[in-house]
Amino acid sequence: MFRSVARSAAGKHLIRRGYATEPVPARKVAVLGAAGGSGQPLALLMKLNPLVSQLALYDIANTPGVAADVSHFNSRAEVAGSVGEEQLEKALDGCDLVIIPAGCQGSLALVNMISNPVDSTVPIAAEVFKKAGTYDEKKLFGVTTLDVVRAKTFYAEKAKIKVADVNVPVVGGHAGITILPLFSQATPKANLAEGDIKVLTKRTQVGGTEVVEAKAGKGSATLYAGAIFADACLKGLNGVPDVVECSFVQSTVTELPFFASKVRLRKNGVEEVLGLSSLSEYEKNGLESLKPELKASIDKGINFANQS
Question: Does the pLDDT value for residue 83 go beyond 90?
Fold first, then answer.
């Protein structure tokens, strides 16, 4: 009796969180670059995700060992490792979501580009897909969730509120001053001084450097944020309503061809790119300041792809 009640309660909890429907759809996820220092923890996080039924791990070397290790975890996903260019097609076949923490090409599935510099690699990927005749603007994402995670954490610390309750949109790009957290739109509302907002903005912009320096140059920022965004994409694919995350996508929010802002995720990827709403004067100035640098990064990516 107790077990059946517990299973029922757990199931309802998963449904509320978007992790279960009746039945849970089978979803295949590929991690390209899975044997690297970034790819391995991301592979494990995807193995832990109950929405994943098949996990394809691909790299140019050492993937079978990673796949064997990850496969031992007692979760739903079946794991397969692929090595070398001749096995890439097998890894991508039937994928719903492709996550790229390293420099590999994706497929017609939803593509989450983590590989930096995102402000350039997303335009590069777009041009590659255009040449192949497979580009779908709704299915290519630059993962900027790490900026959102940091903005939430820093805001919660300063406002002395629970970070689990906090939401802060972050727009622009994914490097330095192109990262613009919109603390004026943060919830719950905290009346922070303008000086505090400037400090929090700067810390969000240099958060990656903070991590790299703390690691004494041995490694970069962690990829838990990549797993968070992948989870949101899977929920959107499963039809969970009103899944909204910030991401660097093809956009008409500004005059730039790509821009990070809130997007609504559904079965075909991006259902809607949301606008910026009202900005504070500080944020308006920040937006205008970031545009030239972000444009340069986008143009660099497009030019690189067209010259290759």
Answer: yes
